[in-house]
């Protein structure tokens, strides 16, 4: 600490809280320890009788907490992500756009493991709205060594973004509704409207819709026709479980699609089938998607619309956090469901 004339203290860091008392009105810290003195602060400091202050002198190899938090923000925020100015040594990490939030959990662990740094985030692989809060960062001491930043850079080097928001692509969607009871008009299709609504959430449209009976050859033909027509996302509903009339999994397999998984460790949604016909995602959706508020379908959709290729490990990992609690008031995605 160095005693310094207040008028000469612009840009210096106050090493202690400075108390102001206005009888009957206020008693408290006018300036907090760690505050960086600005031009406009000088008059106020003089008014509360501070002709001198104790300034914290940063050594050549040190950084103030504010400056460090801003540098860390710059290093960890990738595409689609920005951060606020510092407030009490902390920055907020914010989404610049709507999209799929990606957090590299391993990198996050390694950065926090360096010590003296607090980097907190929400869970990734979920839809995030523009301006949504993604996390925050502060350094723990008032002053840290610059070499800590070097260590952070070393961890991050060549390993992609720690936090990123990927924009959604608009996809042309083909919908195949299976079920002889719907095809023969014994009952009205109530699956289609559910899917249409979910597609609208990603600014995408169902451009082709077909209702077919529970016949493997007919379902297969419809899928291959959609593929030939160049539809970018093919969804087949119903007929996904174990009844003799459940033909959808067999039909999808018979198209030659690469089956990533038939069955997911998520409830609701256990009977979902995820596959690719060439590059086109082809999903078989079980009946529960029609009536349950959220299912594994809602966990996979953001990733599909962000252009990610789903692999078996993605599906298997969903088991941890894969049980929906069916709350009376649903707060998804602000709950544990799908947070693996
Ligand atoms: N013994 C077992 N039973 C069930 C299993 C199982 O593993 N073993 N799985 C259950 C799960 S999980 C689900 S989810 C359901 C539904 O699976 P499906 O995809 O086979 O559904 P469907 O049999 O085709 O239909 C069920 C129900 O929904 C009506 N439906 C279907 N599509 C439409 C539509 N487009 N519009 C209106 N209504 C529709 C259909 O008429 C049936 O009533 O299976 C569990 N059972
Ligand atoms: O695919 Mo079913 O959830 O487990 O209802």
TrEMBL record:
InterPro entries listed in its UniProt record: MoaB/Mog-like_dom_sf (IPR036425), MoaB/Mog_dom (IPR001453), MoeA-like (IPR038987)
Function as written in the Swiss-Prot or TrEMBL entry: Catalyzes the insertion of molybdate into adenylated molybdopterin with the concomitant release of AMP.
Top enzyme class: transferase
Keywords, sorted A to Z: Magnesium, Metal-binding, Molybdenum, Molybdenum cofactor biosynthesis, Transferase
PANTHER family, alphabetized: MOLYBDOPTERIN BIOSYNTHESIS PROTEIN, MOLYBDOPTERIN MOLYBDENUMTRANSFERASE
GO molecular function: metal ion binding; molybdopterin molybdotransferase activity
Origin: domain of life: Bacteria
Domain MoaB/Mog: 174-306
Naturally occurring in which organism (per UniProt): Natronincola peptidivorans
Family affiliation: Belongs to the MoeA family.
Reaction equations catalysed: adenylyl-molybdopterin + molybdate = Mo-molybdopterin + AMP + H(+)
SMART domains: MoCF_biosynth
EC number annotated for this UniProt entry: 2.10.1.1
Gene Ontology cellular-component annotations: cytosol
Record pathway: Cofactor biosynthesis; molybdopterin biosynthesis
Listed CDD domains: MoeA_like
GO biological process: Mo-molybdopterin cofactor biosynthetic process
Pfam family, one: MoCF_biosynth
Parts forming coiled coils: none
Protein name: Molybdopterin molybdenumtransferase
Cofactor(s) named in the record: Mg(2+)
Lineage: Bacteria, Bacillati, Bacillota, Clostridia, Peptostreptococcales
